[in-house]
């Protein structure tokens, strides 16, 4: 039996290195993700590449979201409601592969990131909870 949905959802924030894309995060990132999806159209990609700042003026995103986009700070974009599959439109427009972009979020080189993933991903051993430091 579920007791408190807010408490349940708050538990997701306790997982180190993970951002669960909840409804709240989706609402927060709605316009950011819509912007990303706009890059599916060639004419929008051209406008974005020609003048990123000018293209962003068309989108009602937060100042923080726009700054993170311009900096290509994918970790911050995830915090601000970005969905990795939508953000893929940004790094694809930049000519980056998924592996290249995601490796920047780990602090690892592309080669080290690939090797880690081929070996099965990050080890489940270690800190499993931010609040309990376990």
Summarize the structure.
This protein is mainly α and 134 residues long. It has 10 helices and no strands. It is flat.
List keywords for this structure.
mainly alpha; 134 residues; flat; Protocatechuate 4,5-dioxygenase, Chain A
CATH first level = Mainly Alpha
Number of self-contained structural domains: 1
CATH topology: Protocatechuate 4,5-dioxygenase, Chain A
Q: Please tell me how large the radius of gyration is.
A: 17 Å
Number of helices: 10
CATH superfamily: Dioxygenase LigAB, LigA subunit
CATH architecture: Orthogonal Bundle
- Mean pLDDT, to the nearest integer, reads 87
Order of helices and strands: HHHHHHHHHH
Number of strands: 0
Percentage beta strand = under 5%
* Unreliable sequence segments: none
Main beta-sheet strand count, sense and barrel state? none
Label the overall shape.
flat
Q: Can you give the helix content as a percent range?
A: 55-70%
How far is the N terminus from the C terminus?
Answer: 26 Å
Oligomer: single chain
Q: Could you say which structural class the secondary elements and strand pairing correspond to?
A: mainly alpha
3D structure, described in words:
- This protein is mainly α.
- It has a single domain (5-118), classed as Orthogonal Bundle (Protocatechuate 4,5-dioxygenase, Chain A).
- 58% of the residues lie in helices and 0% in strands.
- α3 (30-38) packs parallel to α8 and α9 crosses α10 (110-118).
- The two termini are 26 Å apart.
- The model has no long low-confidence stretch (mean pLDDT 87).
């Amino acid at each position: 039996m579920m007791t408190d949905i807010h408490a349940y959802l708050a538990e997701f924030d306790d997982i180190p290195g993970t951002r669960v894309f909840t409804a709240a995060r989706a609402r927060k990132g709605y316009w950011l993700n819509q912007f990303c999806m706009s890059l599916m159209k060639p004419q929008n990609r051209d406008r974005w590449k020609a003048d990123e700042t000018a293209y962003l003026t068309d989108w009602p995103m937060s100042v923080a979201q726009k700054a993170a986009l311009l900096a290509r700070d994918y970790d911050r974009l995830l915090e601000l409601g970005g969905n990795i599959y939508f953000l893929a439109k940004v790094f694809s427009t930049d000519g980056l592969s998924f592996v290249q972009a995601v490796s920047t979020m780990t602090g690892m080189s592309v080669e080290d990131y690939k090797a880690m993933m081929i070996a099965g991903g990050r080890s489940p051993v270690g800190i499993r909870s931010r609040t309990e430091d376990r």
